[in-house]
Amino acid sequence: MKYLLVEDNIELADAIASRIRTDGHVVDHATKIADASAFASTGEYDLILLDIMLPDGDGRSFLKQHRAAKNDTPIIVLTARSEVSDRISMLDLGADDYVTKPFDHAELQARCRAVLRRKTGAAQSILTIGDVEFDTLAGHLSVKGQGVNLRNRELRLLELLISSKGQVFSKQKLVDRLFSYDDDVSENAIEVYIGRLRKHLEGSCLQIKTMRGLGYRLDDER
Q1: pTM to 2 decimals?
Q2: What's the CATH code, domain 2-120?
Q3: Please, what's the b/e burial string for 141-180 (b: 16 or more CB within 10 A of its CB; e: otherwise)?
Q4: Can you give 67-106 as a three-state secondary structure string?
Q5: Domain ranges in the chain?
Q6: DSSP character string of the chain
Q7: What is the pLDDT of residues 124-177, one digit of tens each?
Q8: How many CB atoms within 10 Å of residue 114?
């Protein structure tokens, strides 16, 4: 998964980003509304963590703009405001959830997982597709009852492909979704990860197809 973190407190942002990256996710960090808007307009994110009090304005203006543009990326608001009216206004503006500062990082991670499950329509973290079982929370893949160890990038690539079965992803789009703006990678890296996943899924009902000139697609061949 790819996160956009909008937080001007560098120490807090580093702590949040570190926990997210430990789970194998990718994080882009913005400290201002202007930067957050630039990230959101040029990249695709699975979840946005949004602070309210920012140097160039109120984060709620970003929230309003984001929803006005018909962007349905889930947003969790990070706020020091504890008044019920403040929380209600943020939810009414389109926030999917909120966490009141100071917060426990484990709770934030749990809320992120819950919001992402709601987005994909999954009630739990374990996905079973034919002879493949994939636990997105534990990062465990089982093919025909045999456990497979995945590296972080392989895990997140599989998570992306499974959540969008039948959708074609170009190499560049996969680079954008699996790496942050600060990562210096080429499209060749995607070929490596695709090759590894194909070996892991060999013989199963899930097959990664190469769409010549377009990219890759995960098909269920049951």
Answers
A1: 0.79
A2: 3.40.50.2300
A3: bbbeeeebebeebbbbbbbbbbbeeeeebebebbbbbbbb
A4: HHCCCCCCEEEEECCCCHHHHHHHHHHCCCEEEECCCCHH
A5: 2-120, 126-220
A6: -EEEEE-S-HHHHHHHHHHHHHTT-EEEEESSHHHHHHHHHHS--SEEEEESEETTEEHHHHHHHHHHTT----EEEEES---HHHHHHHHHHT-SEEEESS--HHHHHHHHHHHHHHHHT-SSSEEEETTEEEETTTTEEEETTEEEE--HHHHHHHHHHHHTTT--B-HHHHHHHHS-TT----THHHHHHHHHHHHHHTTSSEEEEEETTTEEEEEE--
A7: 677 888 999 988 777 789 999 889 888 888 988 998 898 888 899 999 999 988
A8: 14
| CATH class label, 126-220 | mainly alpha
| Nearest to 153, CA basis, from 191, 193, 180, 113 | 193
Q: Note if the bond before 102 is cis, omega within 30 degrees.
A: yes
**Structural tokens at position 32:** 């201002």
